[in-house]
């Protein structure tokens, strides 16, 4: 799989520079370390942009996608769609559901903006403005404006795989499993989901 | 059979009826009408497809390494938690049964962890392990303490869960042991002392045998509690690192509501139910035989 070795190389860098107790840390301790200058970088999602921007003093840092390739265009930023509306195909009230969505997506109502009608095809972000101004936010919007984004893992794969894949990858971070074992377990686990 | 019993037998059964109905609705019907039949199905909640799987779910369990890990973690958690909490609970109850100052306040302090939400208890201890202990280590220049990754290895993560579980349960068990110790007639204790039975011998030969009904209850409560463990491991480690501190209850939850394999999750539930039933039946049988009357 293209880029898989680079993912593990990046994980190795994280292990090397995250201290001996990295497995004990949570996002809060990561924010604290970044805010008081103990940490230079933080691996997190876009939800942390606002938290970092509210630190005092605000660290003047940017953000970048986890590198999986030497080709910059392939390094896409994982971003989230806030809300996804799904209509059950077996519903007896398909027309009524559609009417609700049509009403909500009416440009005059301004409730929602329909980005896609296909399940699993939710584009991760649209051109974006807002949020707390910061260098990291500037980088984030640049990724979104260029369409250089990718959905989070739970939007890409079968439901539940985001949880089990995290458990499996933890084995690599803890040093208990090697790359080949982790890849094998991820494949086997995913087959269980789609069988 | 007494005459009164014969006369009022129907009335006695009528009194039992509300409890039996509640028991049937909350346990028997879901178990025999839901969980056990579902365990023979291949049923994915997301796709909604159901098909008969026979005993294949149970056969799959034999080679399921995740379930085996969860089962052995539960056994480990059970053994250490049951022994630790009962031993500590009895020791506390024994000393707080003596004439010491403010024993009511001390008992209340030990009981407080039992009335705090397990999730809150877990968060407090997670903070202690991940923030307070490393800071103490830094201040005191104790590198050995600072270098311990409490949640990073299976051994230390298991230790933290056992410690918190024991800490939380001690208060409740202590109260039951206190009540048990207070029911032992003082004349028996004094008679023993006059005969030269003191110290540890008094505990072993007189107090413990008379406490057996209390021990039966406490062991029953702690065994079933250990096998149902979910909240503390979930809030402290979420089963990590890499699933090594995942109890069976959490494994079942993930199977049924994360992977959406309802049939396979039900089969795991049946095995857990049978395990708890067998272990508690053996325990009740063993401890009841040792109960003495005075």
Topology of this structure?
The complex is a heterodimer of chains A (195) and B (294).
Chain A: H1 4-17, H2 27-35, H3 48-53, E1 77-79, H4 94-105, H5 135-145, E2 149-151, H6 153-156, H7 161-173, H8 179-194
Parallel strand pairs in A: 1-2
Chain B: H1 3-38, E1 41-43, E2 50-52, H2 56-62, H3 65-95, H4 103-115, H5 118-140, H6 143-146, H7 154-183, H8 186-194, H9 199-210, H10 212-227, H11 231-236, H12 248-257, H13 262-289
Antiparallel strand pairs in B: 1-2
Kindly describe this structure.
The complex is a heterodimer of chains A (195) and B (294). Chain A is mostly helical. Chain A folds into 3 domains: 1-79 and 123-156, no CATH class; 82-122, no CATH class; 157-195, no CATH class. Chain A has helices spanning 4-17, 27-35, 48-53, 94-105, 135-145, 153-156, 161-173, 179-194, and strands spanning 77-79, 149-151. In chain A, strands 1-2 form a two-stranded parallel sheet. The two termini of chain A are 21 Å apart. Chain B has 294 residues and is mainly α. In chain B, strands 1-2 form a two-stranded antiparallel sheet. Helices cover 77% and strands 2% of the residues of chain B. The chains are: A mainly alpha (195), B mainly alpha (294). The interface between A and B is medium-sized, with 23 and 24 residues.
């Amino acid at each position: 799989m293209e880029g898989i070795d680079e993912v593990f190389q990046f994980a190795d860098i994280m292990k090397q520079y995250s201290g001996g107790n990295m497995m004990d840390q949570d996002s809060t301790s990561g924010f604290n370390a970044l805010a008081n200058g103990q940490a230079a970088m933080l691996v997190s999602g876009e939800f942390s942009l606002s938290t970092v921007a509210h630190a005092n003093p605000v660290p003047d840092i940017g953000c970048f996608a986890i590198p999986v390739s030497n080709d910059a265009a392939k390094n896409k930023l994982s971003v989230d769609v806030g809300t996804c509306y799904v209509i059950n195909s077996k519903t007896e009230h398909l027309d009524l559901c559609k009417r609700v969505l049509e009403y909500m997506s009416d440009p005059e109502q301004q409730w929602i903006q329909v980005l896609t009608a296909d399940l699993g095809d939710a584009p991760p972000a649209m051109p974006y403005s807002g949020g707390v101004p910061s260098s990291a936010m500037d980088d984030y919007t640049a990724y979104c404006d260029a369409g250089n984004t990718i959905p989070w893992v739970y939007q890409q794969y079968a439901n539940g795989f985001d949880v089990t894949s995290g458990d499996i990858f933890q084995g690599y971070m803890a040093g208990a499993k090697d790359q080949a074992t982790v890849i094998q377990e991820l494949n086997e686990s995913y087959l269980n989901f789609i069988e | 059979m007494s005459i009164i019993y014969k006369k009022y037998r129907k009335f006695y059964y009528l009194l039992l009826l509300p409890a039996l109905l509640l028991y049937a609705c909350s346990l028997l019907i879901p178990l025999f009408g839901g969980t056990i039949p579902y365990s023979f199905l291949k049923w994915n909640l997301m796709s909604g497809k159901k098909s008969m799987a026979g005993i294949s779910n149970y056969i799959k369990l034999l080679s399921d390494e995740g379930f085996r890990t969860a089962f052995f973690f539960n056994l480990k958690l059970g053994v250490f938690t049951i022994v630790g909490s009962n031993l500590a609970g009895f020791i506390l109850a024994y000393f707080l049964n003596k004439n010491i100052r403010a024993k009511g306040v001390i008992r209340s302090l030990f009981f407080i962890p039992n009335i705090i939400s397990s999730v809150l208890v877990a968060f407090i201890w997670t903070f202690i392990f991940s923030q307070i202990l490393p800071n103490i280590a830094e201040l005191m220049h104790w590198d050995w303490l600072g270098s311990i990754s409490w949640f990073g290895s299976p051994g230390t993560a298991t230790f933290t869960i056992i410690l918190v579980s024991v800490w939380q349960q001690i208060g409740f068990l202590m109260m039951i042991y206190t009540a048990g110790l207070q029911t032992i007639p003082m004349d028996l204790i004094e008679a023993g002392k006059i005969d030269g039975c003191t110290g540890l011998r008094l505990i072993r030969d007189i107090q413990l045998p008379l406490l057996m009904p209390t021990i039966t209850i406490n062991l029953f409560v702690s065994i079933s509690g250990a096998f149902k463990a979910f909240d503390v491991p979930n809030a402290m480690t979420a089963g990590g690192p890499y699933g090594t501190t995942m109890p069976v209850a959490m494994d079942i939850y993930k199977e049924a509501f994360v992977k959406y394999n309802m049939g396979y999750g039900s089969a795991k539930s049946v095995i857990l139910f049978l395990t708890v039933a067998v272990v508690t039946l053996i325990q009740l049988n063993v401890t009841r035989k040792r109960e003495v009357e005075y």
